[in-house]
Amino acid sequence: xxxxIATIGGYEEVGRQMTAVRAGDDIVIFDxxxxxxxxxxxxxxxxxxxxxxxxxxxxxxxxxxxxxxxxGDVKAIVPTHGHLDHIGAISKLxxxxxxxxxxxxxxxxxxxxxxxxxxxxxxxxxxxxxEAGETMSIGDSGQVELEFVNxxxxxxxAINPVLHTPEGAVVYGLDKRMDHTPVIGDPIDMDRFRExxxxxxxxxCYIEDCTNANKKGRTPSENVAREHLRDxxxxxxxxxxxxxxxxxxxxxxxxxxxxxxxxDIGREPILLGRSMEKYSGTAKRMGxxxxxxxxxxxxxxxxxxxxxxxMNDGKENFLPVVTGHQGEPRALLTRMARGxxxxxxxxxxxxxxxxxxxxxxxxxxxxxxxxKLLGMQGARVYSDIHVxxxxxxxxxxxxxxxxxxxxxxxxxxxxxxxxxxxxxxxxQGYTLGRDIHVxxxxxxxxxx
Length: 448
Ligand SMILES: [Zn+2]
Fold this sequence. Notes:
2 domains, Metallo-beta-lactamase, Chain A, six-stranded parallel sheet, alpha/beta, RNase_J, binds zinc ion
């Protein structure tokens, strides 16, 4: 059976992930993401009403025109998890394919919210919920099967999809870290990866998340960030002024920890900001392991009313969890820093960034500005209470050992970022150009 991999997006950047695997006549697409930084660099662009070709020209969504060079029918679009760089282009490109979106329930909910907001294109693809550990037959040959293996990442219900073919398995490895004690959900299913590496014809190809491939060591568990956060908040138990926290709105496990520790130190947590309400509201609706009795407020006017109430009742009784961890100019924390909200920061008030700065000049500049403005109001900044959602080098070695793939395609980075992975795979006996395929967007690699 012919096996081809089309590397469509995310092979020259972190963002706009998209890869297609053809097995005989059947094609499965993994991820269809948005490169948000290409949108945010232009002030005030609303993508909802934009045409896909304009977004492709901006480099914001994958250029999927290479799909016409693959001979076969797309049978499924499979986003691995709900981050925008993996689902954010489904609303723009999904309708071009007569195929269902297949994902875990939380990811499906987020995809549905994305396509509901879309104004330019209609979307009537079926959306099929499939849990980690489940499989689905692909096409009519009876020889190709899709499996979801549970992984751990900075958003709940992440999976690595595996396409089983008569030539071996194709494992799509974006995005994960190896977490044996996640705060929500099950640990990464390393037993299953080891089985896949050893059963039948083994692993034909492994497409790997190289975000942290240049970082030594091992990515800690979410539990480490949780304990760091606990230690930080407990140390503030006797403080009788304002404490404000910010983190990735989509990081449900982190938001859960913030809510729990706020209550432990006698403060009422309130989630504020549009994306806080969106992600946490979805988690609450779906009944995942998340506090269901916390207030979430998304609209600006209601937010300002709530902040006024907090000031009247005494800010020492509350812990607002807000948007703005990257210093985004329109996010709530940045508005607070500029003194544009009813929330008054005083000398010694604490601001907790449970996030790292995404290493990109725009983010770095905006975050610098936000922290400076907070400091000018007298706030004390606690930064980097965080662990990454991506494997570092030791995790990559472990994955290679578990899967023992014949071919490797490094992804989810630019060329510089991929280099660390090429080095470590070379240490394990792989050779660049023979069985390590470093590539760019818009190429097709024929494996069989
Ligand atoms: Zn991700």
